[in-house]
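To whoever picks this up:

The nightly regression suite flagged YhjD as changed. Nothing in the input moved, so I suspect the structure step. Input below, exactly as stored in the fixture:
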Amino acid sequence: MTRIPEKDRDIIEQAMYLPMLLTILERDRIIIDKAGFKLKEPYLQLEETIKAVQRDLKETRNAMRKGQMKVEQFARDEDFTMFLFIYKGFEEQHNYFNPRIRNKVQELMEYYFSLGR
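Regenerated output under the current build:
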């Protein structure tokens, strides 16, 4: 059983997922830059998406600091990734199924892309 309230757990999970999303978007931006598309305008939305994710990540990190929360990835295998949640001095270990992480990051990506429309 977790001691972390749902609202704070959501913040901690954002601190897990947003850096992953940012890494993916930045890698994609590099690929787009190297691809030499004739019409780059549609891909400029990616820059705005990256900026939105960066803003939200900054807000999340501020909330983490204010709430005395930290999250650290400390183990990974092909099926699961284990995170250590530190909440107001208490430590909890949480296992996340890797496909669940991928799906959540994909959901976030779709959400951020929909903001630009």
